[in-house]
Amino acid sequence: MTIFLQFARYASALREFVSPTYRPERHYMRGPGPACARRGGDIAGPRASFR
Prior knowledge:
Blueprint: H1 2-18, H2 34-39
């Protein structure tokens, strides 16, 4: 059974090397970054002041 698991892991690693899966969450930001926090800007934007 361990030979089969080793072969499956090898095949999976080879497939990932040849054709990597695309995961957009690794490439795009999901919100304001640390530079925005350092500037002290309002994260919610100008509409938050109309309460």
